Amino acid sequence: MTLDVVHSDTLRVAWNPPLRDGGSLVDKYLVEWFTSEFREEEQSVTVTNTLEEEVQIITTSASDALPEIQVVRTLGGGGGSAGVSEQQTINCDADGGYLRIVFDGEMTEVIPFDASAEELVTAFEDLSVVTEVAVNIIGTQSTLCGPDKSNVRVTFKDVANWYGDVPQMQTLTSTLEGTRFAEVTTTRPGNRDLRGEFVLSFNGDETEPIPDDASGSLFQSEL
Which residues, at least 6 apart from 3, have a Cβ–Cβ distance to it below 8 Å? Predict the structure, then answer.
């Protein structure tokens, strides 16, 4: 089929005879004329599905239960033998001001940078947790701080709730002048033999007092 424009409102249409005429001659043709523009048809497809929750079953199995093992560790405390008192050393370099020392959560009053050994003993023993200390200043200096980094040795002879190994001191140096250096080291850790008794608690029950040197059979009988 061919189309030719004859006029603004006229088309010449020509076509070949149909290949199949159904056994009769074609004597008429029907021509339809559409004045509106052809538009492509759009169709939307909606798919729906019903979801079903999946259920999975987990099955676990285990062999015979193993007995629980607990370890009892005893730490020194409660009046052991004399042993070795801990010694800590303060090295301080400052030329003015004062500092504070923290021991076992308590803080001393202000201590002048040039405090003597006696003044240091007083500052420590004013703490509620310290009963007795000894202070020795080693070297050419005789004060807590100095230009040659003093060597102040503090021996803890009697400290509340601590036997042998004690907490390390901490220094607060922001109010010192000069270099403002103060360092604490443990030069001799404390050590005391364990003496006394202890009690174990389990599931709301307590044992009788157990000696620190209890044998395995005695420990088992108490449990």
Answer: 11, 12, 13
User: What's the pTM value of the predicted model, to 2 decimals?
Assistant: 0.53
Contact 207, 214 (CB under 8 A): no
Listed by start position, the domains of the chain span 86-188, 194-223
- With a cut of 50, list the residues of the chain below it in pLDDT: 77-80
Q: Find residue 106's DSSP bridge partners.
A: 103
| Distance (Å, whole) CA 33 – CA 24 | 26
191 vs 66: CA distance, rounded Å: 38
Task: Dump pLDDT digits (tens) for 105-116.
Answer: 999 999 999 999
Q: Cα(124)–Cα(97) distance, rounded to whole angstroms? A: 19
- How big is the CA angle at 32 (ends 31 and 37), to the nearest 5 degrees? 140
Residues in the chain: 223
CB 149 within 8 A of CB 91: yes
